[in-house]
Amino acid sequence: MKFNIALLAGDGIGPEVIEQAVKVSDAVAKKFGHEITWKPALTGAAAIDAVGEPYPDETHDVCTSSDAVLFGAIGHPRFDNDPSAKVRPEQGLLKMRKKLGLFANVRPTFTFPSLIDKSPLKKERIEGTDLVFLRELTGGIYFGDKGRRDGGETAFDNCEYTRDEVKRLAKKGFELAMTRSKKLCCVDKANVLETSRLWRETVQAMEKDYPEVTVSYEFVDAVAMRLVQWPNSYDVLITENLFGDILTDEASVISGSMGLMPSASMGADIALFEPIHGSYPQATGKNIANPMATVLSAAMMFEMAFNLPDEGKAIRDAVNKALAEGIVTEDLADGGPSYGTKEVGDWLAANI
Amino acid sequence: MKFNIALLAGDGIGPEVIEQAVKVSDAVAKKFGHEITWKPALTGAAAIDAVGEPYPDETHDVCTSSDAVLFGAIGHPRFDNDPSAKVRPEQGLLKMRKKLGLFANVRPTFTFPSLIDKSPLKKERIEGTDLVFLRELTGGIYFGDKGRRDGGETAFDNCEYTRDEVKRLAKKGFELAMTRSKKLCCVDKANVLETSRLWRETVQAMEKDYPEVTVSYEFVDAVAMRLVQWPNSYDVLITENLFGDILTDEASVISGSMGLMPSASMGADIALFEPIHGSYPQATGKNIANPMATVLSAAMMFEMAFNLPDEGKAIRDAVNKALAEGIVTEDLADGGPSYGTKEVGDWLAANI
Ligand SMILES: CC(C)[C@H](C(=O)O)[C@@H](O)C(=O)O
Ligand SMILES: CC(C)[C@H](C(=O)O)[C@@H](O)C(=O)O
Question: Does CATH place domain A105-258 in 3.40.718.10?
């Protein structure tokens, strides 16, 4: 098969980790007889510097004319503590999600036996954890009206959801639950928020279409607790944008494998794949960043965008082998020998 | 001294745990020569059942004419999965916070050496944790416009903050930091939300008035991670209402002492003290609920509302002694002998 893949490396360590995912994907393509054409395009601070825009139209065109998007990371500290900055890398991210219609962010959290000791949680708490969040990604308070009144003294952000937005996300949740242990948790704050009550009533109305799925409803604050206490009690969780932002990040650290967690963002027409870690500015250019999350994101791409599970598995197997043989960057080396970003990428490509 | 204390027992285990706090407070009053008049009043589902209103005007009058409010817990499962319920216990809570002007929720998370093994976190992660959240409690999305449009198909919740609301909360945060390790973390989502940008710029402008305090700014998703990874790296954290709801609950479980965590909600005129745990309906009437969080809330009341640190300390000492001697409810008994709610309360009162 032939694929065009938009390649959005972004900021910080983005370009370095993306380079490894490209290497590994090319090795997979070679082995299975596919042909990948990579279409690099600018995004984030890099795009602001080049063309004054974090998600330029040309980049959007590259994405829409591709079969999938592989994304590195964006964000630069020079924007973080400057509330007056008019253009921010994150706006590019939000614009991209919206314009590409990437409404469902798929965020698995699972454990690697060899890394379980890296978890901040006790072994008996984290063992067996294998959950997936579906975070709504193009609605809610991120995209509502926002601004100032009273000469800047009052600020507001409006959170809004339509029933259809909830439905299409929940549908993906029910479907995913059907392929797993048939447990779905709807996370909301229905005791306070009207949008949450819409979420809850919409999901409740869908239950009859999936009689095999056991649905539970939990408040976001309760989930924030149980994720730390009994993460392995969850399977598929669905939630709105802001709750998802907070909870998926919380979930990502419990496994001890954060540097390895991939993600997908699905739309009606295209999907984007990216590591969940950020642009890690302090590590930029040092050849120390862990490329495995980006490489595993490429595995998700083969599986979910191209429906090629064997290709995805080839990548996962290589990563597992690297972990087992200690071919890891310093974050996973535990004081033992460690390898550079490029070296790990080379090893993975060679072991496909 | 003479005090009138409004006593809002609420729902579920509320009445049982409040009874113990009253017992212990009375013992303290006796020992130190104070006179407490308790003013019971209805709230929560109990108030809905009695007068159709979760925070009746009579209850409000009792609170405003008292020197402090001691609160149990509210919430009843029959309201939880009914999005159409017109009156909810939680509305009483929100109305109460608003009408009493309780804008600063003070939520400490600390560890007890004897309970550290109950933490889901590894010992080296949790040891030494002693942090306090100041959660804004009367603004934000909890109290903004909310409703439906398009015949119920679209729901909205508006989040709003004024600079003055941020300032008065932040002021308490700076002051608290000055009495502790002089570290303040402002938690926001300034890369996305306009309200968060107002928070950040307001706190930044206040830094010059507290030159000794080191202020950091972190995104809410990053804090959700670091609370699990390195909770002992935090001291005082300030944040808006919804973020505070999620993060304080997350923080509460990391210590392993959740059943023991007290809280205070401060206003300009009055303060309210309550355990952070909920109404725990399954345990109601079984004499198994742990009363220590409510008892420690009474300690906070003596300290913060009446400025009587010795009285507070007498309570804390009794709790520590009970923990050391194993006079605990079954949640802390680790399979060993355990005591009933009342028995623990009696023991604490006898040991003041
Ligand atoms: C950078 C930021 C806008 C973004 C978000 O909050 O969505 C990030 O935290 C994420 O989760 O992808
Ligand atoms: C019951 C609910 C309205 C409340 C809140 O979200 O504020 C509770 O979770 C709390 O934190 O006190």
Answer: yes
